[in-house]
Prior knowledge:
The protein is α+β, with helices and mostly antiparallel strands. Helix content is about 35%, strand content about 25%.
Amino acid sequence: MRRSKLVPILCFIFAILFLFTFLYGGIRAIASASYASAYNQTSAKSMCTMEATSKRVLYSKNMNEKLAMASTTKIMTAITAIENCDDLDKPFEISPLSVGISGTSLYLRKGEVLTMRDLLYGLMLVSGNDASVAIGEKVGGNVKNFVQLMNETAQKIGAENTHFDNTHGLDSKTHYTTAYDLALITSYAMQNPVFQEIVSTDHIKITNQDGKTRYLKNKNKLLSTLDGCNGVKTGFTDDAGRCFVGSCQRNGMTVVCVVLNCGPMFEEASSLLNHAFEEYHLIDLTSGYAYKDKIKVIEGEAEYVRIGTLGKYLYPLKTDEFKKVKYVYNIQDSIEASVSKGSEVGEVQIFIDKDLHFSEKIYTMENVRRNSIWQKLKDLIDAW
């Protein structure tokens, strides 16, 4: 009797354990899927997350679709001004054409005197449309010429699917970019120390020559909430929706994230940037070189000459990708004296899986003179 009661009880216990195991596994699978989708998907109409040094695209969505960009335009306005202005701290007078521009404003007044640096802070922190026009007039002579400079700079950077009509980003049918192009432009701009200092500033005050002070607070919320955030720009218009370009630096790696037409722009950019640093690490692949550091010298005063490379190749890799890195060496066995420092003696190629990513010349690192006739005679006597 006891045995007959025990069997159903044990069956019930095993059934409960099986159900718990099944549910636990299902919950973990759902959680895992949700975690993955949070980073592999975005509500943005277009997105590009790029490592700034190598320009490698880490994550993307419709990154080559031409879209309105709103005030993220001012990234190009700022870097074009910085590169084409001789003195950022020279005061100049604001013209009437820069006053009363629609949209976000620095509330410039006709005739007041400010510096280009002051206007750049007003441009990038509070997104002053009037500041963008004042900058364009001063640097280009007029806004039309300055916009042409912006387009020329975009082409130089490689932003082939971008066209600017204005300095501020107000909607226009022929004013557009792509998430990929904007990531390229931002990666380029962040190499400039003046640009980087401005866009990483949380707040500042600027004062004109009459003593009027403006207190500027950066609209980029991630500067104070995301570890390592160092820029760069928000934007919004009816056509563009909410746009954001963020930059973050950790452990020597800088990642740029562009989200265009994205409601939760700060939240999604923050998640993408955090995940990029979790998944990728910037590796100096030249540190893995493993070739002999010298080759034989024929008829030289020294028997060997040191050889080496001159550059570095930094590239973001996942852990499993690092295992696929391969080096191919093509180095001559010897060189005839006399040898000049910097003589090319070979090449090294770096492959990731089957794709060639980098190649570099190998050079002699020192001079080696040719043996003189007297040295040869001495060698013969010594040998005899």
